[in-house]
Amino acid sequence: MRSVVAGASVIVSIWILTGCSAMAPNDMGTASDVQGSDWALNELVGFNIDTDRRPTLRFKSESQVQGFSGCNSFTGGALVGQNTIEFQDMILTMRSCRNSAMEMESSYIDALGKVTSWEIDIHMLRLKNSDGKTLLRYRRMGSSHFGTT
Known about the structure:
The protein is an alpha+beta fold. The protein is 23% helix and 33% strand. It has an 8-stranded antiparallel β-sheet with strand order 5-4-3-2-1-8-7-6, with helices on one face.
C-alpha cells in the first residue's frame, strides 16, 4: 500500500511540475505561440486602460500585425523570432479622439517601437525593451479576467 501511495505522489508531483501550465515564463517561444490570437492590452505604464477603448494586437503572420490603438486602427510589419520581435512601418488611420485617448495611443505606438523581445505565459503576453523591462502586457482575448496577475 505504501508503494502505491508513494508512486501516486511521484506522479502527482510530476504532473504539478510539468502539466499545470502550457508554457512557463521565459520558455523560448516561437511565432506560432502568438499568432492567430487577439491580444487585449492589460497594462501600459502611466495609463489606466479604458475597457471601452482597450488597445488590441493581432499577429496575422510571422511578418504582419494589426490592431486597435485606443483611437485608431493600425497595421504594420513584425519580425517575430524565438522570443525576439521588432515592429516596423506602423500605419495608423487618422481618426481624431479625445486628448486622453490620443495621448495613450501615442504612448502605445511609441512603446511598440521600443519592443525587442517577448515572453508568453499561457494567456499573458509581455512585450519588453532591450533592457528586459516590460513595456506592454496583454491578455489573450477570450481568456479569463483582465486583472493585473
